[in-house]
Amino acid sequence: MLREAKYLSAYVLPLCVALGLWQGGVFTWLTPLVAFGLVPLLETVVGANADNDAPPDAATRRVFDWLLYLNVPLLWTLLAFSIWQLARLPLAGWQQVGLVLSAGILVGTMGVNVAHELGHRAKPLEKALAHVQLLSALFVHFYIEHNRGHHRYIGTPRDPATARRGESFYGFLVRAVPGEFASAFHLEAERLARKNLPAWSWQNDFLRVIVAEIGFLAVLGSVFGGAVLGWFCLIAVVGVFLFQLVDYVEHYGLVRREIEPGTWERVRPCHSWNADYVLGRVMLYELTRHSDHHYQPARKYQTLRHLDPSPQLPAGYPAMMLLALVPPAWFRVMDPRAEAALALG
What is the DSSP letter of 46? Predict the structure, then answer.
């Protein structure tokens, strides 16, 4: 039971958002302060745990699935209340910033991160829930690019989501976001070409999700007004910024050897950065055990393992995300580690 209960810590951040909405004032900043202040500090105290302690039947225990499913109504409820307060209440500017950051953190964690896990599942309902969560970031095409592009081309020049050594996060951001849009379209074009169908057609899933997102925004604006629409889009931008920051950390400077032109070595644990810091692991549904995820993408989050060949981050994800915002400090810490990881790999 304790193995299941530890993942309840993932609900600490939505609880912080709820407190911010209820109490207002300084509590509007509670979520970013906990996510990027308290959590990194606690991770230095608690430390990392490389144990692989999942029970033998973990993959089939439904409670782990329901812990994910609950994120869907919870995210959208908190998102709706956040936008309502931003659009309707006379809040001070610093309170608005706090609420936008708080809601954006939820979009990045409960939205994109949970969608990432559900998007790798086989059940149609779970894939549909992944699309719903990605809608909160206006990034539904992620399921096309990530599953069929990123996992195939990780660590190669063809992957927009792999940060190159010496590339700052800000350079990565302006390259990766449009690159992921383009990659999703090209992946669909390739799929349709194999069926002798045109890329610019309604059979193109990328075009359909873009039309669906535009339709969603049009309905949102026409029913609830421009202020609600604007706040939703701003929160989505914060969510995208945060999960791109995670992408940057996950694969920075790690490349696969090209065996022959256009053919690379198979994906191995050494091609993703791993972080076994316990608090971040459970709060992000084991996303930080990223090496095993790329090695075996079908594994459910509760069964992901520490693998010895995987390169280890010197701190947990929240601390590394903050470090990535300061490129000189990031390069000083991570470039030697990336070089050493490539030498060992």
Answer: H
Q: With contact defined as beta carbons under 8 Å apart, do 279 and 9 qualify?
A: yes
272: three-class secondary structure by DSSP: coil
Beta-bridge mates of residue 264: 258
Q: What are the C-alpha distances in Å from 49 to residues 42, 281, 291?
A: 14, 10, 15
Q: What is the pLDDT of residues 284-316, one digit of tens each?
A: 999 999 999 999 998 999 999 998 889 999 999
Do 297 and 120 form a contact (C-beta atoms < 8 A)?
yes
Is the CB of residue 239 less than 8 Å from the CB of residue 107? yes
191-206: pLDDT as tens digits? 999 999 999 999 999 9
d(CA 343, CA 345): 6
Q: Per-residue pLDDT tens for 11-27?
A: 999 999 999 999 999 99
Residue that the structure tokens 């439904």 belong to: 62
Residues 279 and 42: beta-carbon distance below 8 Å: yes
pLDDT digits (tens, 9 = 90+) for 92-148: 999 999 999 999 999 999 999 999 999 999 999 999 999 999 999 999 999 999 999
Percentages helix, strand, coil for the chain (3-state, rounded to 5) are: 70, 5, 30
Length of the chain: 345
**What pLDDT, on the 0 to 100 scale, is given for residue 35?**
97
